[in-house]
Design brief:
- The chain contains 1 helix and 9 strands; from the N terminus they run H-E-E-E-E-E-E-E-E-E.
- It is of the alpha+beta class.
- Strands 4, 5, 6, 8 and 9 form a 5-stranded antiparallel beta sheet that branches.
- Strand 8 (about 95-105) and strand 9 form a beta hairpin.
């Protein structure tokens, strides 16, 4: 479990670093790096108010599956991986949640794991 927490912290730190260099507005430093875990996946996001800079979805067991993320009008492409980061750089005024999901073998394993922004 300790290795998993270190990996999560490293992933978040990398995501924040990459987000800051990815052409965000000058004053859009992350005001929050938040995460939420379900039984099978964790969803993490770095954001400044409603300006979402990145979304990371990863499986807790390290096994690959079809990961996706969604937020307001943003629907990330489905990717086959155990962990994936979507660089978003998009503001959605009415959106309050960043969510993720996992499918394996054509079945929805977990969906609606959301982070409040």
């Amino acid at each position: 479990m300790n290795d998993r927490l270190r990996y999560l912290a490293a992933t978040l730190a990398t995501g924040v670093t990459l987000a800051l260099t990815a052409g965000a507005p000058a004053d859009a430093r992350p005001s929050g790096v938040d995460s939420q875990c379900g039984k099978y996946i964790c969803v993490m996001t770095a954001h400044h108010n409603r300006f979402v800079q990145d979304i990371t979805v990863q499986t807790k067991d390290g096994l690959p599956g079809t990961l996706r993320s969604y937020w307001g009008n943003f629907h990330g492409p489905k990717v086959n991986a155990a962990s994936h980061r979507w660089a978003v750089g998009y503001e959605q005024a009415g959106a309050k949640l960043v969510c993720g999901g996992l499918e394996r073998d054509g079945r929805t394993i977990e969906d609606g794991i959301c982070v409040t922004i």
